[in-house]
Every structure is written in C-alpha cells, then in structure tokens.
Amino acid sequence: MSKQTVSEISQLLDTIGSLNDPRLKAWQADPRKGVQQALQRHQRRIKRQVRAYQAFKQRFKYENALWKSGVRYVAGMDEVGRGPLAGPVVTCAVILSPDFDLVGVTDSKQLTRHEREQLYLRIVDEAVEVSIAVNDPQTIDRLNIYAATQDAMMRSIKSLNHQPGHLIVDAVPLPFDYPQTTLIKGDQKSISVAAASIVAKEYRDHLMLDYDRVYPGYGFAENMGYGTKEHLAGLRKYGVSPIHRRSFKPVPKFL
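RE: above sequence
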C-alpha cells in the first residue's frame, strides 16, 4: 500500500462506498499528509451520502404507510408558477413504485438547474406514471390563480391511466372525491410530491425558455416570469405581452 502514490489512493477512495473497507485501515497508518487529507474527504463524502439516504427514506414514510394499508397507487401532486407575473401554472401528478431509488429527489428549489434536469429525465423514465396539466394566463385571469391551480391539479389526476387510491398534495386541498393527504411543504416531506415538483418546474422552465425567444426583453429565460427588476424594466419598455397575467399587480399599470 505504501508504494501507491497519493493520487492513486485518492482515486481508489473515490470508488469506495463505505467506511468499512479493509484498505482504509492500512491507509490510516500512512504518514503522508495528502493521504490523510484524502481519507478525511472520503469520510465526509460517505457521511453526506448516509445522511442523504436517511433523509430519502424519511421522505417515503407517507407512501410506505399507504402501500402497507393496501393502497396500490399513490399519486404525489405539486404545482409550479403560482407567483409569477407571466406564464402558465403547471401541475404534475407522479406515481412511484416502492423500489424507486433516486436518492437525489428532493424539493426542486434546493436543486441546481442541472440537477433538476437530470432528475427530471430519470423520474419520467422510472415512475409508474407522470401526468402534467397546464393553465394559461388567460385561464388564471378568468378563474383566479388558486382555482386555476386546483383545476390543473384535478385534470392531472383524471388523465392518469393508473387511477390512484390516495393523493399526497402539496398545500392545495382538491375539491373532489379522492382520499388525500395535504402537506405544507410537501415537497420536503414526500418523495412523490418532490418528484412532481421537479417535473413541474422543469416543464415550466422549458416553456419559459421558449417564451423568452418569442417575447424577448423581459428576461423570461432567467426570471421565469417572476417580478424581478429586469422583468419590470421590460414591462416599462415594451408593455404587456400576451403571456402576462393581467390580474396580477403591477401588470395592469402597463396595459
């Protein structure tokens, strides 16, 4: 072991997924500072992975309880886009299987854009089913944002081929006859809701990227329709676009 370079040991440590590998004991006796630093980095990495896995399992507690009670299909529900001044509200329903194992799935707001994109692709690929519904700004203005969100959520559920026996919904109770659990900050407490949050956000973000090309000048590619300084400056300069919500202040000022 002592003939190995620090670089070689560091590379090997990157392939070791536990703190019980017998090689670690030999390397702990290595006096070289670089080896000890590599061991410390490995220990921190493994501990982070253990915490992430424990948190992942904890976010499965609602689904596990429902599956054990005999419910076959549990749908997690979330929405993205209630607060922006422009663009649609997007809702998503996700049904997962008990062997779903994407540990990185958590509240979409805690992930980078790259992490969300990668997880989005895998969730869509590995979920039992994913259903998305969209309500445009005109529907939001007609119904109000809360009712438009409920409407899209209910359409997400009704269009599923695997009809769920129970819903786990983030913050918005739905007025129809499905047994449901409503959670505040559900995307931090339920893996199904977290998965729905990621899919809905990625879907909406890509819509806003397209809208940025159609309606340049508002910064939609960066602010996704939220009322940033750049967005408000665009409203002052260019006025109201077809995707602005005319019932949301301060949009009426620029009509």
